[in-house]
Amino acid sequence: MTTTWTNETWRTSARAAARARHLRYWSTVLGLALADALSFLAAHYLFRSGHAVPSFVLFLDRGQDRSAPIDLFAVLALLFISVRYLAGDYNRRQLFWDGAKISTIALIVTSLVDFLLLLAGNGIYAAMPLVLSWSFLLVCVPLARQGARGIMTRLDVWQIPTAIIGCNSRSAEIHDALEHS
Asked: pLDDT tens-digit profile of 58-105?
């Protein structure tokens, strides 16, 4: 005779732990993506609003009027956030300077489209709002992401379980760096 025993409380606690992991994961993704989106929104309203900047208009049908102009900056912001999500930057735990380096490279690559249209526009677009907005983002995005990490740490969402293997002084330095990142 074979007897099988299962503990239903184990199953519920495992499911609850899995739900908590998923909630923590999506909270960190949304928190960092929101920090990036708010940085782009601040740059738009501080430097680009009311100026001649690259935008595009959709023509839906010959009989209809054209749609409202869509600012290229908003499209680039959505593209930046989408690519950063697909690259896994919103759930990867990084030190500040490593994240700032990746953010800077991504912003420079994203801004190339805007600056190429500025050059192709032959003087119809204002250059200063573009330069100021992208310069502002080079500083604001890493700082906003660090601020979001700080808020999520206070809410106990950012702390990702991490195993450090080793027992030398370098391991202690890594621990301290990850503890305060």
From this structure: 666 665 666 677 788 888 999 999 999 998 888 777 778 888 899 999
Dig out the tokens for 23 from the structure.
């909630």
Residues 175 and 167: beta-carbon distance below 8 Å: no
Of 130, 128, 124, 123, the C-alpha closest to 73 is 130
Report the C-alpha gap between 64 and 62 in whole angstroms. Answer: 6
Strand, helix or coil for residue 56: strand
Beta-carbon count within 10 A of 161 CB? 5
Residue 123, sorted as left (phi over 0), alpha (psi -120 to 50) or beta, turns out to be left
pLDDT tens digits, one per residue of 15-74: 777 787 788 888 888 999 999 999 999 999 998 888 777 777 766 666 566 667 778 888
Query: pTM of this prediction?
Result: 0.78
Q: What's the rounded Cα separation, in Å, for the pair 164 and 181?
A: 15
Distance CA 142, CA 102 (A): 9
